[in-house]
Amino acid sequence: MSEDLLALAREVGREAADFVARSRPVGRVDVAATKSSATDAVTAIDRACEELIRERILARRPQDGFVGEEGNDIAGTSGVEWIVDPIDGTVNFVYGIPVYAVSIAAAVDEPGGGAGPRAAIGTVVAGYVVNIPSGEEWAAVRGEGSWQLEGDQRRRLIAPDPPILAHALVGTGFHYVPEIRARQADAMAKLLPQVRDIRRSGSAALNLCEVAAGRLDVYVEQGLMPWDRAAAVLVATEAGIVVAGLDGEPDERLVMAAHPAISEEYFSLVRACGF
User: Fold this and answer.
1) What is the value of pTM for the model shown?
2) Are 33 and 70 members of one domain?
3) Fewer Cβ atoms within 10 Å of its own Cβ: the N or the C terminal residue of the chain?
4) Angle, nearest 10°, between helix axes 44-60 and 2-23?
């Protein structure tokens, strides 16, 4: 079943990515609303893309549940729930920076945990992420592996051996609530001298896929909701990456990712820096 769920996620995700690409006007996109703060943007295209994804998936699987970043959640009866971010990296999308993605995950009813409203999801069994501007695709099936997709071809992702932690390239992002951003900046100031450098590209989903592919060595971020992380965490873990939270599973409080060879050392450093 998980392969069927992935096939549907990819079919709908590619259509959604094409819709966003065709809908984006030249120049800067108008912001329709904000979420957690005045700088946390939502556009009309976000909302329309999520509606397209919801309609396409539920037309094929009408008993499934649906949780999307923009709301209008649906409680299903099938035991399968879809967790969707229509545009992960909306601020990049607004400014025309070509790093933003459609993220679609399918979970089954084995409720896990997470902090905050709408945070508890089941076990994610299929995940799909596509970088809208580039068309680069990532996918995973629980227990079967993760891949970079190129047409009908699957290139298996196996996370490469990392450098020593002092030479690690860190992917990260910052919360949109000013008080939390200030604390994150303090923690990052402590972390930065102890690693190679940081990269902040603006899409958590793509960053986690990049850790799986070896484009980043490690990752840390706070404030990620289920739709931000569900599909990409599966891509990373199926590639052999360890993904954790502050004291257990990754959640809104903290998401950390690293190769097993340095994960314990890196996670300890992240906690010591105050994330």
Assistant:
1) 0.93
2) yes
3) N
4) 150
